Amino acid sequence: MFNFFVDASARVGGTFRIVGKDHNHICNVLRMQPGDTFLVSCEGASCLCRLAHVETDAVIAEILEDNYQNTELPVHFYLFQGLPKGDKLELTIQKCVELGAAGIIPVEMSRSVVRLDEKKKKSRRERWQAIAESAAKQSKRSLIPEVFDVIPYRQAMQKAAEMDLFLVPYENERGMAATKEALARIRPGMSVGILIGPEGGFDEQEIALARETGAVVISLGARILRAETAAIAAMSLGMLHVEMYPDGEEK
Ligand code: SAH
User: Fold this and answer.
1) Superfamily assignment of 3-69 in CATH?
2) Long-range contacts from 179-185, C-beta under 8 angstroms, 24+ separation
3) Which of 225, 228, 229, 237 to mutate to test ligand 1, by most ligand atoms within 8 A of the CB atom?
4) What is the pLDDT confidence band of residue 1, given thresholds at 50, 70 and 90?
């Protein structure tokens, strides 16, 4: 289940008034509707809430239950995955859902070997969503992550720009300083995009465009990993960091 973090001032009687980036995230990224449920964390306690209604600058959430437990990470990780060959994305989706990803966005990249027609895109997506669902149930997630439509790279950049932090593990990047700094920037309530290239990796234009979009380009170590391994390693890194520092790393 999604979890949003608010200050004590957001609590108004039996409701929370959610403003700012989370208002945009709930309405435009997650496209939640009245009746949808999510958690609101306030001063260390989580409340189960229901979206009551949306105002131009705020989402009003009705509190259904105080002190609610859930298994979701307090950070929403979105895996943007360059479309790989064959059925490789299936393993990536299964593992990344187990590791806590909030959503998966398959991306057509210049070195993606496969090109799916519209019919294939639809049938693949249904299959990928079913894999996400069974992985979510198996790992006792509180929500079922969404597998989004396959989108072209430029559109992926637009979606990535909506994230609070956009990480791009790049095979040609060296040194772990940027990786360490990027992890230290993660705070509860953030949305974090992670973009992994296909088997052929990134071309230089794609990396340039990602940098223009605000990406933090990072390394996952000195060895070249297969795309599936890289996605699993990056998600593990993010997940374990957040599990260890749920309130954000102390400076
Ligand atoms: N064909 C490329 C490797 C692509 S690996 C080559 O031989 O150089 C597929 C994707 O996994 C990459 O685009 C990158 O996103 C990720 N990746 C693999 N190894 C990585 C590493 N050591 N650091 C960061 N990202 C890595």
Assistant:
1) Hypothetical PUA domain-like; domain 1 (2.40.240.20)
2) 179/218, 179/219, 179/220, 179/237, 181/216, 182/216, 182/218, 183/237, 183/238, 183/241, 183/249, 184/249, 184/251, 185/216
3) 225
4) confident
